[in-house]
Amino acid sequence: MWRRNLLLWESLLVGNPSPRFIGIRNLTGDNILDKSTSVCDITRMDGKPMKPKTLQDAILFFSDPDNALEYMKRLRWPDGQVYCPRCGRTDVVYLNNQRKWQCKSVHPKRQFSAKVGTVMEDSPIPADKWLTAVWLLSNCKNGISSYEVAKAIGVTQKSAWFMLHRIRLGLSLNAKKFGTKKKVGGSGPVEVDETFVGGKLKNMHKDRRERFVSEKTGASGGTMGKTVVMGMLDRSLRQVRAKVIPNVKRETLQATLLKEVKHGSNVYTDEAIGYDKVSYNFIHDVVNHVETYVDGQVHTNGIENFWSLLKRTLRGTYVAVEPFHLERYVDEQVFRYNHRKHEDQKTPMTDLERFEAALPMFVGKRLTYSEVTGKDGTTHF
Ligand SMILES: [Zn+2]
Q1: How far is the CA of 84 from the centre of ligand 1 (A)?
Q2: CATH number, domain containing residue 221
């Protein structure tokens, strides 16, 4: 199978491809992506890595179950050693017809797939569809609706909706199990701001609505019933951190700042009263909306730009996001924002690079259907 696909791939490369396949020319050229250290390289028989570049390539590429499996395997076991997730045994048996492994020890769940221990675990949807959906969500600038994904990969809209939520959890920096989150700040200034995302009070999750109403008493009509998102942009790294927060009280803002921004960083905020004690832990500059010309550096235009991207996605693609789910959509937008360019802030990231940045984030996270529908009683704050 692998060999046959390789031949197909070769014929596309050397033959006379129709215009829709132009994108995979130069696939094995001296592209800067061709780093052997990359998690998901698939090495061809001639030793050169083989990578899809466009959505069409990706669909074609992952439609071969061997390619999809190889990708998943390298994601799950980056050092190439497959081991049982239950007991750690490495002498596992590969079951060719099921594309699964079986542990030699007798214990529950001794058979496992490459999706084990990722947001895709226990999903009956095959890896090729998952990988295509990940490609779509990590790359579509304004997000992609479950209807579009359902059509593109041939699953029901309900399945696509759940898949997208699991992928968003995968992309999340805020998810509990993600261990490599880094604070922003330290080197350059951090722009801090909050925004209010619409949605009517009646659509709110019940206990959240009650809390919200009691906390927001006295809020002006404009913000009443809206969900608060707090954002922090590291201006030199161009990295955003954003979180749904329950209110705009001083303690909430301060606690979120301390969690996301390095102590002692230079922080720019507006004049909101909730920020009046920021200088206890940070170098605090307040944006003066009247006299911005005095110091052109102190502004929050960067994070405000992020808010407009977020709102465009929410209005244009997702239309009716419940406050309960908002954090996931924020996580999704943060991922794409943080992966627009390389660290040099000049070279744009390719679709493949974003895709490959997304996948390793999926390991160690789980999301059940009851959690995503809010039926387990938690409120996700
Ligand atoms: Zn085992």
Answers
A1: 5
A2: 3.30.420.10
